[in-house]
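Obj.: predict assembly geometry.
Materials: sequence records (below).
Method: joint structure prediction, all chains together.
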Amino acid sequence: MVLSLVAEALSIERGDRLVLEDIGFSVAAGEALLVTGPNGTGKTTLLRTIAGFLKPSSGSLHLLGGDPQHDLSQYCHYAGHLDAVKLRLTVAENLDFWAEYLGGQADKQREALAAFDLTDLADVTAGYLSAGQRRRLGLTRLLSADRSIWLLDEPTVSLDDDSRNRFATLVKSHLAGGGIVIAATHVDLGLPAAKQLHLATSRKAAA
Amino acid sequence: MSPFLTLLRRDITLCLREGAATGTALGFYLVVVSMMPLGLGPDLNLLSRIAPGILWIGLLLAALLTLPRMFEADAEDGTLDALSMGSLPLELVCLAKAIGHWLTTCIPLCLSAPILGLLLNLDLAAYPALAATLIAGTPAVSLLGSVGAALTLRARKGGVLIALLVLPLYIPTLIFGISAISAVVTPPGSFTSSFLMVTAVSLVSLVIGPIAAAAALRAQMG
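Observations (raw structure tokens):
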């Protein structure tokens, strides 16, 4: 059972530019952290670092309560700007692939489809979906396998009000089940109790 | 089903549904090989002497055409990010992609090679040797190709760069593949020793390819 994720004095470089400097936060199970800030301040960079795609240049990220044999990234779901949806596969095939690949249970499939209101579209090729429907299909990956930490990068882009509300409900039930949510967003996700991490604009060039 | 087989099955399904990559490679192979007799003239002795070389080089070039898409499609839509977060190490992801490429591209090319051999008056005795060396040698084509595809993932117009990176690596397979076939057609020479070398190159690629491709992908993940 994951207890909390703690970042200490995290600095991250991209290219030769220091994007994030001396970031610290701690999120416990059941808590959400909203990463806010103007464009280009490193919200995505921070999420991609937690997901394990980037190595921090200094500082540390610890997971308290996890199995030390597994990487942090194996506790995370990352939902970024890209949906990771294969347009030639049907909605159900896309979902099945991620459930099997990420080691989830097959019986969750119906639940995930219903949660995102995609049940009627299960046999439709993903290439025929609209941007919002594709987004919802991408987000079903969060439910396809149980993982404690959800890293969400602008998750509600191109979702309509109804889908946004459904998604907010899912996020809340994930938190209620002891999960952790770290979201970078400009819109309100309906999480009044969430912690805030505001990233400021001024960044120095790396020495 | 294990994540490895799930990924492999998905790659094969996608390739069968799209079909364009394999079709292009087969078409290219057919055109290149059938242009040879037109360019060299109807000298049957000459053609049958150079047939193994043409069939091998044509196959390498045709396979090369399909390499850039190996990781590109998954990188473009964010699938690669999500794949790297599974329990499967990135090395095995690369291996699954390379095996998928071998099954969907190299095997169809190998199957069409004997038919194209007819256009080049390939010696009848050479057919079994041709088939054997192609099957044993083409895993190296996919595995070494995966390294090139991974290295050029973020390069604009990576296709040409892949050719420069990967074709030199195919030279050992090419040399021993052709010498194995020649040994059967024009003795002396040993088919077995050349054939074993072709197999050895494939086995070495099996070890090095996925590790190098995964390292290249990791360096470009950010």
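Conclusions so far: The mean pLDDT of chain B is 89.
To do: check interface contacts against the pulldown list.
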